[in-house]
Amino acid sequence: MRLETETVGGTRLIRVCEPRIDAASAVEFKDAFRDCAADAPGRVVLDLGQVEFLDSSGLGAVVAAMKLLAPDRRLDLAAPRGKVEKVFRLTRMDTVFVIHPDVATAMDATADAP
Fold first, then answer.
1. 81: helix, coil or strand?
2. How big, in percent rounded to 5, are the helix, strand and coil portions of the chain?
3. How far is the CA of 29 from the CAs of 24, 59, 68, in angstroms?
4. pLDDT digit string, tens, across residues 84-101
5. How many Cα atoms are found within 13 Å in the side-chain-facing hemisphere of 91?
6. Which of 83, 66, 77 has the alpha carbon at shortest distance from 103?
7. How far from 65 is each of 14, 33, 75, CA to CA, in Å?
8. CA nearest to 57, candidates 90, 108, 13, 20
9. Distance between CA 89 and CA 106 in Å, rounded?
10. Helices and strands per DSSP (H, E), number in the chain
């Protein structure tokens, strides 16, 4: 699982560079995320813009990533599209995560936002 990172101020951007987070890649995603977030500041933004498919295992991996950061750090999501965005809506996980329409909006959002 290829993830890219960038830190701007108090925010670490982690970009998923794969088209799928599913049963076959969920464990690999969690391991890669853990490595990328190990020294992250108080806020992490997960860019899902390149992800085209997310199944229940993938959703579980994203939730596990959020739990890995809690309670001291926050995970926001950016740019979920199509089927990926629909998974978050249908499972009502859009009420758990702060979801931004794109990376620019996510990076501009203040760390104090809910």
1. coil
2. 40, 25, 35
3. 10, 11, 13
4. 999 999 999 999 999 999
5. 18
6. 77
7. 11, 7, 8
8. 20
9. 18
10. 4, 7
Domains of the chain: 3-108 (3.30.750.24)
Q: Which amino acid is at 113?
A: A
Name the maximum alpha-carbon separation found in the chain: 35
Tokens 């760390």 belong to: 111
Record the pTM: 0.94
Tens-digit pLDDT profile for residues 63-86? 999 999 989 999 999 999 999 999
Strand partners, 70: none
How far apart are the C-alpha atoms of 62 and 46, rounded to whole Å? 9
